[in-house]
Design goal:
Layout: H1 2-15, H2 17-32, E1 34-38, E2 52-57, E3 62-64, E4 71-74, E5 83-88, E6 93-101, E7 106-110, E8 113-116, E9 119-120, E10 122-127, E11 130-135, E12 138-143, E13 154-158, E14 163-167, H3 177-180, E15 183-184, E16 188-200, E17 206-207, E18 214-215
Antiparallel strand pairs: 1-2, 2-16, 3-4, 5-6, 5-16, 6-14, 7-8, 7-13, 8-9, 10-11, 11-12, 14-15, 16-17, 16-18
Catalytic activity: Cleavage of hydrophobic, N-terminal signal or leader sequences from secreted and periplasmic proteins
Pfam families: Peptidase_S26
Keywords: Hydrolase, Protease
Amino acid sequence: MRTEAVLNLKQSVKNNLPFILFMVLLFSFRSSVADWYYVPTGSMEPTIQVGDRVVVDKSAYTLELPFTDVVVAKTGNINRGDIVIIDSNAADTRLIKRVVAIEGDKVKLENNVLFINGEKATLSVKGHNLYSEHILGQTRTIALNPLPSPAKNFNLITVPRDHVLAMGDNRNNSVDSRYYGFIPIEEIQGKANSVAFSLDPDDMYLPRKDRLFTSLQ
């Protein structure tokens, strides 16, 4: 009986070998090259909305052996402004945040206004609680909701080696480096480049047509 079961198993594997190989390649690709991430919170609004499925380039910074954390090669540098997926030990969960400062940068926050390496961010009104933030040649839209936030200020700090400082674009509604501390580069799993599709939790999870294949900046 045991021999018959083994023979049946071998025959089943042989018959389904193309499908098995396809699944192995698919999951290897998702493990090392690209994946998507469901966004459950509004900490990155307005850039990323609750219900977005974000495409993540997992080979943007490093190439790893599939299903492991073994780095085969470094493929790129983490830059200010990058939106990244973080496998955070401090938060004990995955986070999606924007890199605000990289190693060596001197940063402070005064009443939600960023200062990086002596340059003060300029804010211009875009809409209700929305502002265009410009600093060090980069511009992005942030939300400054009128919420009492204990994290709208921090004193001048220097980002240590092999770490970044990351924050959510929804500045008064984001738990980020202001709570968890600097993010080790080794915890960054990839770069978020675009929204594949989005389901609206406030409208019976119907697709948001205007979010389809939206690039992230």
